[in-house]
Amino acid sequence: MRSDGRQKDELRNIKLEVGILRNAKGSAYIEWGMNKILVGVYGPEEAPPAIENLERAIIKVEYRMATFCSLEEHGKYVPNRRAVEISKVLREALSNLILVDRYPGGLIEVQILVLQAEGGTRVASFVAAVAALIDAGIALRDIGYGISAGKVNNEIVLDLSKEEDNLGQGDIPICITRKGDILLLQLDGKISYEELQSAIEMVRSKREFFENLIRDAFTRRYSKELSNDLVRHI
Ligand code: CDP
Fold it and tell me: Distances in Å between the alpha carbon of 41 and those of 138, 157, 166?
């Protein structure tokens, strides 16, 4: 039994909205348990000559925590090593999802702001970033999603809460495509090969849930736009 009463493969409540920022090309807002995260996507723009690659787009990802997002972050204004690490791993994961060779010489920027943190922000940021990229019209090779698996009370479970992350025996954030290709896998703790396999399998089994989450967010977005258009025409 988990501390918040969830089943071992049960996710916290997740809500996703897209197209919520006026001044970004694409945007998304995710609430995942108590996590609240905002993502804005800019581009493709022309990359500055110093960093441009004439064969593919350069992807820039900035993960930041608001100073009010958690007690740990309170009063800290400069990104710490962890924020630099998460920006890097998310950049690598997203660079393998975006069809970068469609945008030679281009720059695509993904800005992530964690408004409230409660465990699992890197995978929640990844899901919101995928939705914001789709909203910006950036070509992806597949839909991607992520979940933090982990080991708690000798059992592999999905979607660690902050408490489970702090007290558990292992934390395994995984980002994956709908087809099953792994884009990010980190491991903090001691876990057997079989346990790792079962964590990946459990994450794979949530594919349809995330497909629907993203699809429903876009359905809401465009039905709202459509009904606004209708009101304007009446
Ligand atoms: O957020 P994620 O689980 O991907 O990363 P983590 O490094 O395993 O951190 C676990 C949780 O600790 C975060 O989600 C935050 O709730 C909290 N944390 C924080 O608020 N500020 C930090 N500097 C580090 C961790």
Answer: 9, 32, 31
